[in-house]
Give the backbone structure.
Amino acid sequence: MAETEGVRRRDFINIAAVSAVGVAGVGIVVPLISQMSPSADVLAASSTEVDISAIKSGQAIKAIFRKQPVFVRNLTAKEIAEADAVNVSTLRDPQTLKERTKEGKENWLITMGVCTHLGCIPLGAGEGETKGEFGGYFCPCHGSTYDTAARIRKGPAPKNLEVPKYEFASDTVVKIG
Amino acid sequence: MARILSILVGLFFTLALAWSFANGAYTQITQPPAVTAEHEFHLAPKEVHFASDGPFGKFDKQQLQRGFQIYKEVCSACHSLSHVAFRDLSQLGYTEGQVKAIAAGFQVPGVDPNTGEANMRPGMPTDYFPKPFANDIAARAANNNAIPPDLSLMTKARHDGPAYVYSLLTGFRSQEGFRNAKGQEILKEFPDAKTPNGLHFNPYFANLNLAMAPPLTSTGQVEYGPGNPKPTVDQMAKDVSAFLIWTAEPKLEKRKQTGLAVVLFLIFATVLGYMAYRNVWANQKH
Amino acid sequence: MSFPWAKEYQPASPLTKWVDERLPLPRLIYNALGAGYPVPRNLNYFWNFGILAGLCLVLQIVTGVVMAMHYAANTAVAFDTVEMTVRDVNWGWMMRYAHANGASAFFVVIYLHIFRGFYYGSYKAPREMVWLLGVVIFLLMMATAFMGYVLPWGQMSFWGAKVITGLFGAIPFVGEPLQQWLLGGFAPDNAALNRFFSLHYLLPFVIAGVVILHIWALHIPGSSNPTGVEVKTESDTVPFYPYFVAKDGWAVGLFAVLFSIMLFYFPNQLGHPDNYIPANPMSTPAHIVPEWYFWPFYAILRAFTSDFFFISAKLMGVMAMFGAILVWFFLPWLDKSPVRSSNYRPLYRKFFWFGLVPTMLVLFYCGGAPAAEPYVMLSQLAALYYFAHFLIVIPIVSAIEKPLPLPYSITESVLGNDEGAQLRPGHGATEAVHADAAVNPPLQGA
């Protein structure tokens, strides 16, 4: 009886010793994995303030947020009407223009300028760039086409252009982030 | 069992592809893609030859000097040449004194040794060609929202680069009445493709309209020294293209010469190797 | 392990004897690449690509170590340091072009090596482990090549990195954090460039390690051969040295000639002009294409344009692209045919030449073409056949096919009806050796 207990105790010590090695292994691996995540300086993505006073109706600008482009677009009444005329249930990523803009500021469409397919920058915000067949944005990489509410309409992208967190600091300044 | 599983996985991928194909075909039939003016009217670069072409090609140094003159007097107002240093110009046949004089003719950013403030000073042979604009924003502001690209690698940064540069420089023309090989007239087929204000029509440019105004416009715009050909637009375009072949690949001559020696030696060694192989296997059937 | 008739290592000098007794390295090499390794005598030129691949790996490591001496992995200067290497470093232009074209040459050789494996059934028992390790090498090569292409930080470098890391974003739930973990940021930047450089330097040595395992696993059953009939007797084989050293030697010469012509006369032919434009995260090139060796898989990625039930087109594309290579891991068990060489498989051979080969060519072509019709639809058809070939055609054909009669032995296939060489069951190895000796006088001192 005493002997079997002794064996058990010895087994337990062996198991515990091996487990300790396992814990040590995990302890070493965690920092090694974690060091690859975005570092503090990268994460310190301060918010960006954009002056929108100079953007006339129908124009757009590219701002920069977290080193990626943001499209700020002043929609025309016709573009808003086009976006509202779409039957939302037919969309790949159903959203209305209202849901993608701030109340009372429906003409200001603010989206990331990063195609949701593989991260290229769509055309359509710059002067003279093609806006694609739905009048919004067109991604030259794989042909994703967005409408005037920057919703995906055609091509491989799975989602609408992302609307970042933003607020109107004043009538002419938008704070993104 | 494994076989059934494999066939099921295979069906999964093939059906997904068939579905994509069917959708694509349906879209293709119901909404055929619009033909664009770029697609119909863009021209491939003209055929043009340079002394540096071919396996035995060498730079025509006289031509490179003319090309450099054009860069200096015309292009450098807007385009940087950031990977080229003044010292490199000795490869064009300039003497040390000439290189020094050329360098001193450019103002490069420096630091005032007394106050420590940023200033401009005359260039030295070790300096690189200065940039015409302080940064991209300044470049955009001065050029109707377009950034003039750096020219050091231009002939390698475009398909068929040397011919492209030559074609672009000589390809400016009026958009009125421009017809493609099919005989279509651009403004009749695509009224929307009219060149916007501030841009310039050029069928050798990818989207037909570019911000750069024709840089070489008339014979004699740049005065060549005695013993050189007449500086026609065509000649100047060729010369500056040749110069840009050199800036993009200054080691081109050495590369081709080394290659000749290496390839000839390797062919010789390989023939020997083949004979040794036949020799070793002479008595073995295989 | 080797065949019983393999020559044993005999140290030629007291020094090699001394070394051999303490560390049998000379013996290892003698048995791996010397006279101690019997190789089927009927190997054709497709069997040269293994050595050539090894040569390419050495070439890449040597030129790569040299390039790293002049390179700085920082987004501000990476492009300039590469240009500086080409313009100002002695022979830097040659090292750079050799390294860039060396990657292409490596993939040409590897694709031909894989082609050999497909056609002659080299993946079948008992060589599954050789095959599996080979696929691992191929995957490691792709990772290494991809990261290496990012290092010059040109436009294609940047956008290639963005698109490929974007693939991981398609994975449900963990995709976005995983992508940020891989990049160390929200888009490719200094963190990504530095880790890519670190791994690009590391992985070739990992590849070299797996190559050693690959060769080790090969030496257990020995090389396969164009008939697919296993070695039976000594007359089926010749020693690696001098026979295959001579054959590989001149093939290396031929390869070197072709590679030098590429390097010295067409060094930028396979590269993309856009990579001579410094990376600009704010401007996407008109057509993003990877290097040519990724085209078939890139075409498969882009072939999925419609959601399939609840799976998004993007995720389907990513799964298919990785699946297209992962399916190779299962090949030894998908192809149940006991016959290795397609020369004796009349039905499979048809699917091979008229199915798989044109499919791969179409995928190669479409992967490099813009994402527009008709290329997308063509790649959809080709990708469809690709998956059908591996997952449906191979299992079914290998079950129903009636193979052609195989030669009894390699000796018989080489020597035909030569009276002395006719080997029939029941005849001993000694007799066969004797018969062979009559045809071929034994080599002295080899």
